[in-house]
Write a structure and sequence with these properties.
Oligomer: heterodimer
Helix content of chain B: 25-40%
CATH architecture of chain B: Alpha-Beta Complex
Shape of chain A: elongated
Largest sheet of chain A: none
Largest interface: A-B, 39 and 61 residues
Order of helices and strands of chain A: HH
Number of strands of chain B: 13
Order of helices and strands of chain B: HHHEHEHEEEHEHEEHEHEHHHHEHHEEH
Helix content of chain A: 25-40%
Strand order of the largest sheet of chain B: 1-3-2-6-8-7-12-13-11-9-10
Structural class of chain A: mainly alpha
Number of strands of chain A: 0
Largest sheet of chain B: 11 strands, mixed
């Protein structure tokens, strides 16, 4: 005896499988950003992502090591200062 | 002066002929379009020709001048704009395949101001996709493909204002508009042998321009002389209430108004020699040192200047990475980032998310200290000079992470502190590739920067050289 499955059940089965990780993002009809981009990267691409992350961490560490006086105003509202002379 | 001669000349040289009606803006636009159609296309330097608009603006210019209504030195001059500046009804693709047919309802403020000055828009110019906002590692990272250097087509024009540099150097347009977040005006100016000005942050409005890094993006002219840069800046600078970053108080310095002194003897010039290491091309070094001697000969006080030991590059990298990922979030989350040429764009958003909010704020604090450090430097000097790039134009096939593997403290620091900088041709390699010299000034001190550039060019002829023109194809 065969059991009929609904489209919803079929979709659940498909999307719960590991194959879902291989789906391109965005999945048609799904809200954007639902699947981690990391999940769809090939192994060599993941290595390159890790390399990028590592480089950013090195940069952040270098700034962390700076002696920045407490209360230093971040340059969010950046204003170029006119010449004094 | 024929239209062909006018295209090879500077704006300042061609303008009097237009004013006196010896040179027709219509004929000049046609000549420019013809060169763009052939040479421009072969260089991969053109995103789109704007023929219909160009001919309409050229005819208007001709009629106005004939009726005695001359608008100024840009009237009737053909120019190209980097394809990140909105132009009403004409696709503005930001160099990115997924956005190739993107259009806007209004002109960017810079485009509108140039129209008011009577300039004729002949083309949208090729650029690196998203101005490199999600990173790039090859010159081919553009919907137009890699833009060739007109001095040697196997070499890169640099980016991200690739077409602006290439078309200006090849004399296809009178001048071009580029933009810089870190190096995107100065590098193509050096590689292509043109004069390019990165204005003070906030001096030129960005309304209608693609945002990559809100706190660092600048728009500026690329031309065939420092004087031409001054003329173009005069037309595009000044407050625009629609741009929150646009400076209100500029002390009347728009357009490089008359400097405190045009006598170079009054200037204190600091020579910055960054530790470029092994990558520093000896021919670039020799040309730069010769330029230092030439500038000394103009009469200013010239002495060595040293930048403090601060994490200039790291601070710029963190800020641009994070702001770029935020700017292009819709492309990242929609997955359309996968349509970009650069493979690394696929994970750029993910990499940027690894930077914590604390790290970003710390970078902004570091930036404040960098700004203060430059204020102290400019207590001692009026201007800084340095090689624009330590290398000549890189081969098109090169990976950029290797070609550009050096520290760029004056480039990153200058952009972080919003300083104006001008790149000038200062020599050529034995293989005929241009070498650039940069002049950096205090914020809003475009006057001194441009004046030193003009004086240098009055005493040298590097900016007068033009790349070989390819033979015309038989009809």
């Amino acid at each position: 005896m065969t059991r009929r499955i609904t489209r919803r059940t079929a979709a659940k089965l498909v999307l719960s499988a590991s194959a879902a990780l291989a789906l391109p993002i965005p999945i048609a009809g799904e809200p954007a950003g639902k699947t981690s981009p990391r999940a769809i990267l090939r192994p060599n691409e993941r290595k390159l992502l890790e390399k990028s992350v590592g480089q950013l961490r090195v940069a952040a560490r270098k700034i962390q090591q700076m002696k920045i006086p407490m209360g230093t105003e971040p340059a969010f509202v950046f204003r170029a200062q006119p010449p004094k002379k | 002066m024929t239209p062909e001669q006018a295209l090879d000349a500077t704006v300042a040289e061609a303008a009097p002929f237009i004013r006196s009606r010896q040179l027709s803006p219509v004929a000049l636009a046609e000549a420019s379009l013809a060169r763009l159609e052939t040479t421009g296309r072969s260089l991969n330097a053109v995103a789109a020709l704007t023929r219909v608009r160009a001919m309409e603006e050229a005819h208007t210019a001709e009629q106005e001048i004939a009726s005695g209504r001359y608008r100024g030195p840009l009237h009737g001059i053909p120019y190209g704009a980097k394809d990140l500046l909105a132009t009403k009804g004409i696709p503005t693709g930001w160099g990115a395949r997924p956005l190739k047919s993107q259009t806007f309802e209004e002109d960017a403020t810079v485009i509108r101001r140039l129209r008011q000055a009577g300039a004729v828009l002949v083309a949208k110019l090729a650029m690196i996709e998203l101005a490199g906002g999600l990173g790039y590692n090859t010159p081919a990272a553009s919907s137009s493909g890699a833009t060739s250097n007109p001095w040697d087509r196997s070499r890169w024009s640099c980016g991200s204002s690739s077409g602006s540099g290439s078309c200006t150097a090849a004399a296809l347009v009178g001048f071009a508009i580029g933009s810089e977040t870190w190096g995107s005006i100065l590098c193509p100016s050096a590689f292509d042998g043109v004069s390019g000005l990165r204005p003070t942050y906030g001096l030129v409005p960005r309304t209608g321009a693609m945002a990559l890094s809100w706190t660092m993006d600048k728009i500026g002219p690329m031309a065939r002389s420092a004087e031409d840069c001054r003329l173009v800046l005069g037309a595009i600078a000044g407050n625009d209430p629609a741009d929150p970053s646009s400076l209100v108080e500029t002390g009347g310095r728009e357009g490089g108004a008359a400097p405190p002194s045009s006598d170079a003897r009054a200037y204190r010039v600091g020579v910055v020699r960054p530790a470029f290491g092994k990558i520093y091309d000896r021919e670039v070094e020799a040309a730069f040192e010769e330029a230092v001697r030439a500038i000394s000969g103009l009469g200013p006080t010239v002495s060595d200047a040293k930048l403090p030991d601060l994490p200039f590059d790291e601070t710029a990298v963190l800020i641009i990475t994070v702001e770029g990922a935020a700017a292009f979030e819709p492309l990242i989350t929609s997955g359309r980032v996968r349509e970009l040429v650069e493979p690394g764009a696929k994970w750029a958003g993910e990499a940027a998310r690894s930077v914590s909010g604390v790290d970003y704020v710390r970078a902004m604090q570091a930036r404040r200290l960098i700004q203060q450090a430059f204020e102290e430097i400019f207590d001692k000097y009026d201007l800084l000079i340095s090689p624009t790039m330590p290398i000549v134009a890189a081969p098109l096939a090169n990976k950029l992470e290797k070609a550009f593997a050096y520290n760029d403290p004056l480039g990153s620091g200058g952009n972080l502190a919003g300083l104006p900088a001008l790149s000038l041709p200062c020599g050529f390699s034995k293989t005929g590739l241009p070498i650039g010299l940069q002049v950096v000034g205090r914020p809003l001190d475009e006057s001194r920067v441009l004046t030193l550039g003009r004086l240098y060019q009055e005493n040298t002829d590097w900016h007068r050289r033009r790349p070989p023109r390819p033979p015309a194809k038989p009809a």
